[in-house]
Amino acid sequence: MLLLIQYTLIFASVLALVALGGCFSEHSGVINIGLEGIMVMGALGGALAMKFVPAGVPAIVMFLLVVLASLLMGVLFSLLLGVAAINFNADQTLVGTALNLMGTAAAVVIVRAINVAENPDNVSSTIVYRKAKQVFLVNIGDFEFNWFMLIVVLVLIAAHIVLYKTRFGLRLCACGEHPQAADSVGISVYKMRYAGVLISGALGGLGGLVYITAGVSEWKFENGVAGFGFLALAVMIFGQWKPVNIGLAALLFGFFRALSNVYTGFAPLVALKLPSSLYNMLPYIISLVVLAFISRKSRAPKAEGVPYDKGQR
Predict the structure, then answer these.
(1) Is there a contact between 238 and 294 (Cβ–Cβ < 8 Å)?
(2) CA dist., res. 115 & res. 276, Å (int)
(3) In this predicted model, which residue has the larger pLDDT, 102 or 291?
(4) How far apart, in whole angstroms, are the C-alpha atoms of residue 199 and residue 186?
(5) Under DSSP, is residue 240 helix (H, G, I), strand (E, B) or coil?
(6) 34, 280 in Cβ contact below 8 A?
(7) What number is the average pLDDT over the span 236-256?
(8) For 1-35, how does the pLDDT look when each residue is reduced to its tens digit (9 = 90+)?
(9) Considering the chain, what percentage of its residues have pLDDT values greater than 70?
């Protein structure tokens, strides 16, 4: 049971961070389908930092450098979506799909190039970070506490305050609801949409780092992030684009994802003799069922996915 709680919280942390990223982007009016690719690039930045930062640095310095590398990689990669969707009015769904394909492919190429440079016989896409990973963890008895479990709670609270209690958040939401009206009172729609996309990139990149450090000490980047970017989109929709609801939805989806890891520890589930692949599919099946029932009642920002035309009224 303790292991189930541990995995539920860490997977929920991943989903909440990435879903919040999508929430900020869509509140600004830009659909971010590319969260999967952003997660991979954020994970790459964090993994490379854990690999190359000297082991002798203080734990807090290692923690900050790894987190900063993930945030930076996520932001830089999300710029591609910003430039294509905001400056060139490209189809946001197609751009996001391209980012997903590009993210995993680019990560594999970069990691293999680094590995081959170190050892010509090593053509794997794997980065090992066994010791560096420990800076994120604290053992409380048999429970492995990850600092990101606390950080995500603070981020959820901060996101709620920013979106609904600050001038910046209200302007961001205005640009996703009625950009022409926002522009008419002097709000720069382009700047606000860039802000939403970049925040999305930062949170998505951080979510990628949390994902690859959840219970493992190395990551093969050709595996990507197992569809967690798309699960995060389902969490965002189920949470109705609201930070608090997103946090609760992330716990639900995180529970079913965790169950696929630890179901062998529950005798009643083992007695059912269901194939392990069914438990692995469970979170994705749940997402389809949930979206099928709530899609008609979902209240997305009105102008999301619509390129802004300054001359339109």
Answers:
(1) yes
(2) 33
(3) 102
(4) 22
(5) coil
(6) no
(7) 94
(8) 788 999 999 999 999 999 999 999 999 999 999 99
(9) 99
Between the alpha carbon of residue 291 and those of residues 96, 216, 298, the distances in Å are 20, 30, 9
The C-alpha atoms of residue 140 and residue 194 are separated, in whole angstroms, by 41
Q: Count H helices, E strands: the chain?
A: 12, 4
131: Cβ–Cβ under 8 A, 6 or more apart, which residues?
A: 55
Three-state DSSP state, 241 = coil
Indicate the SS3 state at residue 124: coil
Measured between alpha carbons, how far is 206 from 29 in angstroms, rounded to an integer? 22
Q: Checking phi first, is residue 215 left (phi over 0); if not, alpha (psi -120 to 50) or beta? A: left
Give the integer Cα–Cα distance in Å for 249 and 255.
Answer: 10
- Sequence length of the chain is 313
CB 219 within 8 A of CB 43: yes
Residue for token digits 């303790």?
2
Q: CA of 208: how far to CAs of 1, 158, 281, 293, in Å?
A: 26, 20, 20, 29
- Contact, 231 vs 63, CB < 8 A? no
Q: Is 226 exposed, middle or buried (0-12, 13-18, 19+ CB in 10 A)?
A: middle
* Six-digit token string for 64: 């900050």
Say how far apart CA 108 and CA 126 lie, in whole Å. Answer: 9
pLDDT at residue 311, rounded to an integer: 65
Per-residue model confidence (pLDDT) at position 54: 92
| pLDDT for the residue 312 | 65
Q: What is the pTM (predicted TM-score) of this model?
A: 0.95
CA distance 218 to 235: 27
Tokens of 40: 């991979």
Alpha carbon 73 to its chain centroid, in Å, reads 13
Relative to beta strand 218-220, strand 143-146 is unpaired
What pLDDT, on a 0 to 100 scale, did the predictor assign at position 313? 58
Task: Return phi, psi of residue 146, to 5°.
Answer: -105, 130
Give CA 173 to chain center in angstroms: 20
Q: Which of 217, 253, 214, 187 is nearest to 16 (CA)?
A: 253
